[in-house]
């Protein structure tokens, strides 16, 4: 009887520990959902700025050109990132319809797009969903910024995107300014047009 009690107590302890660890991981994700195994912090082999133009080890990061892509849009035309270089800054929003954080954040980003579309372009990069699924989400949420379909995951791999609801800020010269894992704010958009 004592052995059975010890066995069940051990199982309960492992279960409780697993719940605590998973709770900590979900809490630390800060508004984005994993779509891969780990975030590398590199784009095309180069460490990119994650905020305040410093890399994770506190060393000033050098400017990096954003990897170009040409992807099909929802209307069947092509969207090329390089078309905006020298024209205006760009916010890339990597998203999926199943992502609860994207469901909350994309309508907010859409309002910011409506307000700042003369000064900043927003491109929503859908992560490997069907055109029909992406179109349904866009229609039901009234999203009016361009949507690029990353059906093979090439753009997301080039940007080392492992989480939905990740934003990449790119300046007018085509350089990556910052990655924002989680919700975007108006202040983030304003930094691109100052």
Any descriptors?
35% helix; two-stranded antiparallel sheet; alpha+beta; Glutaredoxin; eight-stranded mixed sheet; 194 residues
Output the strand order for the largest sheet: 4-12-11-7-8-9-5-6
Q: Which regions have little confidence, pLDDT < 50, spanning 5+ residues? A: 17-62
Output the helix-strand order: HEEEEEEEHEHEHEEEH
- Per DSSP, the total helix count is 5
Mean pLDDT: 79
Written overview of the protein:
The chain has about 190 residues and is an alpha+beta fold. The protein contains five helices and twelve strands. The protein has helices at about 1-30, 100-115, 130-140, 155-160, 185-194, and strands spanning about 35, 40-45, 45, 65, 70-75, 80, 90-95, 120-125, 145-150, 165, 165-170, 175-180. The strands form three sheets. It has an eight-stranded mixed beta sheet. A two-stranded antiparallel ribbon has the order 1-10. A hairpin with a 4-residue loop joins strand 5 and strand 6 (about 80). It is globular and about 75 Å long. The termini are far apart. Residues about 15-60 have low confidence and may be disordered.
Write the topology of this structure.
Layout: H1 2-28, E1 33-34, E2 42-43, E3 46-47, E4 64-65, E5 70-73, E6 78-80, E7 90-95, H2 100-116, E8 121-127, H3 131-141, E9 147-150, H4 154-158, E10 163-164, E11 166-170, E12 175-181, H5 186-193
Give the gist of this structure:
The protein has helices spanning 2-28, 100-116, 131-141, 154-158, 186-193, and strands spanning 33-34, 42-43, 46-47, 64-65, 70-73, 78-80, 90-95, 121-127, 147-150, 163-164, 166-170, 175-181.
């Amino acid at each position: 009887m004592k052995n059975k009690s010890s066995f069940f107590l051990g199982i309960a302890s492992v279960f409780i520990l697993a719940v605590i660890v998973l709770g900590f991981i979900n809490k630390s994700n800060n508004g984005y959902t994993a779509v891969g195994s780990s975030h590398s912090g590199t784009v095309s082999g180069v460490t990119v700025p994650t905020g305040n133009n410093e890399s994770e080890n506190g060393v000033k990061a050098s400017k990096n050109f954003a990897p170009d892509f040409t992807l099909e849009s929802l209307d069947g035309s092509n969207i090329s990132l390089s078309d905006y270089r020298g024209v205006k800054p760009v916010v890339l929003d990597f998203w999926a319809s199943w992502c609860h954080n994207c469901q909350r954040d994309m309508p907010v980003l859409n309002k910011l797009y409506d307000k700042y579309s003369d000064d900043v372009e927003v491109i929503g990069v859908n992560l490997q969903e069907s055109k029909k699924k992406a179109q349904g989400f866009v229609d039901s949420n009234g999203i009016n910024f361009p949507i690029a379909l990353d059906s093979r995951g090439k753009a997301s791999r080039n940007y080392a995107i492992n989480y939905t609801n990740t934003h990449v800020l790119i300046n007018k010269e085509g350089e990556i300014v910052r990655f924002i894992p989680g919700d975007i704010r108006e202040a983030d958009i304003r930094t691109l047009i100052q």
